[in-house]
Amino acid sequence: MTQFLPPNLLALFAPRDPIPYLPPLEKLPHEKHHNQPYCGIAPYIREFEDPRDAPPPTRAETREERMERKRREKIERRQQEVETELKMWDPHNDPNAQGDAFKTLFVARVNYDTTESKLRREFEVYGPIKRIHMVYSKRSGKPRGYAFIEYEHERDMHSAYKHADGKKIDGRRVLVDVERGRTVKGWRPRRLGEHVPPSTGLPTSSRPGPSPLPHRDRDRDRERERRERSRERDKERERRRSRSRDRRRRSRSRDKEERRRSRERSKDKDRDRKRRSSRSRERARRERERKEELRGGGGDMAEPSEAGDAPPDDGPPGELGPDGPDGPEEKGRDRDRERRRSHRSERERRRDRDRDRDRDREHKRGERGSERGRDEARGGGGGQDNGLEGLGNDSRDMYMESEGGDGYLAPENGYLMEAAPE
Q1: Where is the composition biased (Basic residues) (predicted)?
Q2: Is residue 422 scored above 60 in pLDDT?
Q3: What DSSP line would sit under 31-57, residue for residue?
Q4: Which terminus of the chain is more solvent-facing, meaning fewer CB atoms within 10 Å of its CB: N or C?
């Protein structure tokens, strides 16, 4: 395909001209001939300097030595500054130290955002305050974090010193102490306590006079005690919170259990009420049926008594006496039976129901016997022959009782008929 391209494009694919050969200007390093062979430094030793005439070697300062040197220089400068401040420090002639020193309370570690009115409100609970002096920085004008509180009575200052130590103000626990600059002889502040006088070379603790070390130990002990008290207070607060949470949880569970029990009791009461109402309805229904049956049986029994063929006295227990079904004795017995039945247990009630059922059966059986006697009286003995005409009343009753309580003997054909289902 390239042969069909125009000449100007074919020129782009043409190879370049070969590189021309040029002879080297000099020999290569490995081709050069060395006239002088390699040798050592022995010929040049005489040119060296004599070691005895050489200066001593200088030793360079290491990093650790440089840091130690700077630390010593800093300590020396600080010692000079402390000595100068000690000469100028006189708490008894300080113009800022006013009022009675034995009524003044020192408060440190105060939050920088705490105001003088806030301090007054916090410390007035121990007694009336005469003056509050908060210390500010001279260069920046910001609070330094400590103040002096002068009370009107010394006992109030002692009460605040005893109870206000470790009190939390604006999220920080303050340190409370008495003013020791004017009350303790030889006492010096911490910034002026640790220094080594150049004259003696001894530490401050070896110098005669009051030493600041016991004060530092006392401050450390007090700080440790404050931290322990703070931890104990926090633990006690957490225990109270956990106990309150447990009490609330138990009270909620008790309320829930009580509500559940009340619901169950209400359900049981409703169930008992429904059961009692159903029992009372059933009892009333049975009473109505029994009274209707007794009333119907009494009307049917009047005819045999008029015919002179009354049932014998030792007949079935379903037959009533001369007082009739609505006699006063039967009514009294019914009332007593109902009263006793209301106080009986479930088993006795079941027994009573069985007894009532048996009595109803006997009563129906007696009604059937009275109907048979009435039919015989009407027929006058000239009716159909049922196979029992040669038997008397007692024999017929015995025959019916021997056949069982579930059936009766029909007067038409003399066959045993089953009783109607209840």
Answers
A1: 240-253
A2: no
A3: GS--SS----SGGGGGGSPPGGGSPPP
A4: N
CA distances from 131 to 22, 100, 116, 151, 411 (A): 106, 11, 10, 7, 129
Q: Which amino acid, one-letter code, is at 36?
A: Q
Closest among 325, 275, 322 to 297, alpha carbons compared = 325
Half-sphere exposure of 160 (CA within 13 A, CB side): 33
Contacts of 237 (CB under 8 A, 6+ apart): none
Model pTM score:
0.35
* Strand, helix or coil for residue 385: coil
Q: What's the Cα-to-Cα distance from 409 to each of 315, 383, 404, rounded to whole Å? A: 16, 16, 10
**90-187, what's its fold?**
Alpha-Beta Plaits (3.30.70)
- Select the more confidently predicted residue: 378 or 236: 236
| Tens-place pLDDT, residues 155-183 | 999 999 999 999 999 999 999 999 998 88
What element of type H or E holds 134? strand 129-136
According to DSSP, residue 110 is labeled -
Q: What is the pLDDT of residues 282-309, one digit of tens each?
A: 888 888 888 888 887 544 444 434 434 4
How many angstroms separate the Cα of 72 from the Cα of each of 76, 191, 192? 6, 18, 18
Q: How far is it, in rounded angstroms, from Cα 400 to Cα 318?
A: 15
How many CB atoms neighbour CB 159 within 10 A?
15
Strand 104-108, strand 143-151: pairing: antiparallel
State pLDDT tens for residues 314-348. Answer: 444 444 444 444 455 666 777 777 766 665 567 77
pLDDT at 394 > cutoff 90: no
Residue recorded with tokens 């130990």: 217
DSSP-derived secondary structure letter, 99? S
